[in-house]
Fold each of these.
Amino acid sequence: MLNQNLLKKVLNKIFELKKEEKFLIITDNQKKHLAEEFFIFAINNKYNVKLRLIPELKQNGQEPSREVSKEMLKSDVLLMITNKSLTHTRARREATEKGTRIISAPGITEDIFNRCVDIDYDPLIKMHEWLRPIISESREIQVTADNGTNLVFSVHNTHGYAEHLLKNVKGAFGNLPSGEVDSGVLHANGTIVIDGSMAGVGLLKEPIKLEVASNYATIISDNQDSLKLKTLLDNFGKEAYQIAEFGIGTNPNASLSGIVLEDEKVKGTVHFAFGNNQSYNGKNNVPIHLDGIVKKPTIIVDKKIIMQDGKFIDA
């Protein structure tokens, strides 16, 4: 069961949910047991809540039905606890633009909820106040790692606003667990070696190596995990290989679990995503978005090291 203090923290502190607000919870059969705990807690505390069960999505980034999209737009507060992700969908973006406060928690488990969500948010907010401007105002970023990663790129439309770690202002959006500063990617060139986990694959047995030219990746490693990723991306053609996102994990309680929702938040890691970039005002509308985690990276922003081998410098 979910910790009762956690349920209270999500609704009262993170959302600051008001009794009169329209609160919608979207879930599927795989995650219904978790969503129902929030629903029951909300009912018992006399919130205006509705639970909506949807068919399980086939892949991350798949659009929900038109009917569900309309319900999302009509809600004031939206909690999405699903197996596959609705984060990078048009429906979610339109609800955010309309002002809905949204938490997306695809693939989350009871353990991740209790361990990574019920945390002290004040130090995390302070870290994001330091880190986000460094990334958002950068001209050039280089990420290296001992595993062979060496990528140079620029970023745009940076997320990770400190105030959005709490979803208590109009249009606030993010995951639970919280803990990443993420950006759209432009002009990426070099090498990425994913060695932590990969969405759609899980914890990696062997690293996935990709060469990147003009923001498009090519898988050059030849192993089972690389083949799994290639099969997933090939279903959607060239645009699935576009580098969509760069993110830095900041959650001190997160650890590599094979569930990318948690993995991308692990403090001292970075992640790169392939596919849909419309959440960063990009134009790539391919219906897939997959994140891969790089362990113990070094991050160099405009020639200054801000992370060395997975340790923040001057944070």
Amino acid sequence: MSFEKVREFENQIASFFGSPHAVAVDCCTHGIELCLRQQKVKSITVPKRTYLSIPMLANKLNIDLKWKDESWQNFYYIGETNIIDAAVLWQKNSYIKNTFMCVSFQFKKHLSLGRGGIILTDDEKVSKILRKMSYDGREPNEVPWVKQDIDMVGYHYYMTPETAEMGLQKLPQAIKQPARVWNINEWADLTQMKIFKEQK
């Protein structure tokens, strides 16, 4: 199966959300991580009620973690950045200009692929950098990686063609169905968990 399926999936998701560019990744958290790495962010501020993996990025990336009380719906900004955790967002033409919106396709999400995510952006130059980062630093083309002169550190965070193919099959039905409204109380107050108490 060709990685052209991934490009096709990216294009269709970008069209739905109204984003000029999209970079498919293996999960939403990794999409956020790539954006944080690319921007060399030194600290993150996240809501007390969100998914575990987002504040855990602070430890992984050796950056400062700050908490905020925020009753968010559909998405929230990561601190003072233009990076948005939009994991649960499913709304046509909802892309916000000059941002990096990261959407999830985890099995509980509206477009349920078991795993997967996408970064939506209007920055073509950075989208190419993020795509290379997701592909172990290699150019995502037909040239075998052993014949490429890799010039940047990358990560094994790309979406597989099989996942993209599933996404293309499920997308028409996902567009037809109304999206679920998530309640903020579906997420625990992470600051009360032992793992995070020292990071309050």
Amino acid sequence: MVNILQFNKESWDKLVDAKDRWTIPVSREEIESAKAGKWQVLLTPCKPVPRDWFPRMEGSDVLCLASGGGQQAPIFAAAGANVTSFDNSPKQLKQDQFVAKRDSLKIRTIEGDMADLSVFADESFDFIFNPVSNCFIPELKPVWNETFRVLRRGGTMIVGFVNPVEFCFDSELAEKGIYHIKYCLPYSDLTSITKEERIRLYGPDEPVEFSHTLEEQISGQLEAGFYLIGFFEDFRDDEIIKDYMPSFMATRSLKP
């Protein structure tokens, strides 16, 4: 039996060592621009989040959920927010700490499971930022219930996630630009393929991934009590599939 939380923690720590794209801290120049009010961040891989999706940052209590890596949390802190970065990977949190120390920013970092926010009191935050990351956990309902609990009334949450259709395809053929449906949804690295196949396809250290239905992603938020008030799609920038369909989606939700 795989301890998913521990396995993915170690996987993301190794991705930091490998200098994966999502572990590279922002530059001093980006921080200075954010202090001057000129900034943008990614929730999905390519399309910057619309600025009207964000609250006024000055003085806002912001939770960067599963968002370590020295990228978004430092930008929000430089823009004047009171930022908490909550992530399962200690080394991803160290990237936030690195930027905070380098640029004299205040960022609180806490290691933990995104499905368990019990360390936070009810209604602790004005805004929650959750980039593409819920593909690394098996269940979403606890995330939506917990984020609803810790968000203040009138607060918003923005979430990026993978288009579930992506998980249907034969990954080896997809690398050749051939999109052949092979797997049923919901997909799981632990049950849809064997351990040997996973290692052969992705290597021994890649994080374990799970698809989630759109019903889980969207209706799950609604059932937790959120109102859906924004949506966009995004495309990959490095695979042929970008010519056919969006690979990512993003929602903006309100706690009434």
Amino acid sequence: MPYLVGICFVTTIGGFLFGYDTAIIAGCNPFLESQFELSKDGLGWLVSSALLGTIFGCALAGSIADRRGRKPTLILAALLLLFSAVGSMLVPLFLARPEGFGWIAADRSLAQNWLVAARLIGGVGVGITYAVSPLYIAEIVPSRLRGRLVSIYQLSITLGILFAFVVDYFVLHAAGEGAGAAVAGPTPSGLFRWLFVDELWRGMFGTEIPVAVLFFLLLLLVPETPRWLTSRGRESEARAILTRINGPQQAEKAMGEIREVLGQAAGAYRELLAPHLRIPLLIGIFLPMFSHLSGIAAIMYFAPNILNEAMASTEGSFLGAALIGVINMIFTFVAIWKVDRFGRRPLLLIGVTGACLSLACVGFLFLIGSRWVLVPLLFYVACFAFSYGPVCWIILGEIFPTRIRGRAAALGAFSLSLTSFVITCTNPRLFEALSPAGTFFTYSALTAAAIWFIWRFVPETRGRSLESIEKHWLKNKK
């Protein structure tokens, strides 16, 4: 068990990085908007550029993971995230040069394009992590623990989001009154002042570097998944890993199930079009899509901006964003605690219904000009955190055959990322065109459609081996 926990811990650092990369820019937005003199469309593009990279990452991840292995694919993601963090922090100078610090100087336009490019590269890393980390965990853990440990991956995402919001707040607070904080701290100088006061968004981006380095180094220590090794004829290595995780008797049983299913698998995208996989394909595309049509990405990327519509202070909106991160993490524990007891389907139906109602309430409070918008917004985040957040990834890691699971998971992540890109890119413009109230009513209506879809198509997979789930689809082949 300690060996398995250690492996899953390393993999979930990828989830932490994903969450951190998602949320860290939320604190940067007001300062990027001011320093780069961005329009609403320009802000939407700058923020969502990482999500465009995520789409490419998801498109690449399945093929790389199935051909080269899950572990090398995650290592590539770690390197891309590290490169992005360094590049985002060291955008060329376009304002005053820090005393005694020499760096590339450029005009504002070039600096902005540099930042967009760095965010795109990081997005590719996020997309790969998005698709492969839950897949890795699903393939290496026993079925009795799979739901809980894949949920821990989602917990690591929420923890990354929370840390990013908290770091944003403390960087803002340390910067003092010049950055909009209520209390001024000691005045720094030189390079530190440039990174954490004058252009504090640089320091916010740079805080991702140590985590990316740790992720890369620890990935060198974890094994490849037994299912992928067996699919490549490396059965002795697969058996050794399974034995260390489950013991000799369970390892042999698992190897037998893996061999039986692998003998039937074709290992190509076209297999997803087979009659017995039509329903899994439908779930794999639409369940992730619906999860982000609810607006979660826009809320996480623009939390301070959204709350600023109802609050009077910059610091207050940053504190509200941090509270969103806290609620997001706390209610992910509900999924970890209950997903292997209550099942995937009940958590989805309860959570998505709650999300639909709370989004409508946010819209109503914006409509009447209430300052209590944060309350139903927190309720929405709680509902998302114990349903869509973890359960979507658990299901995507369970319903597809082994040899195409990487491609199928990547397809689901691609669907989610594309939806997330559209929602995030359009959020500032929707706020301007439809008002905040109209935007949240729209998200609520889209979430209502998801309730019917889940009720009609999503099966219960709790407590079943990956191989038995595939046999279920084959048995129901028409």
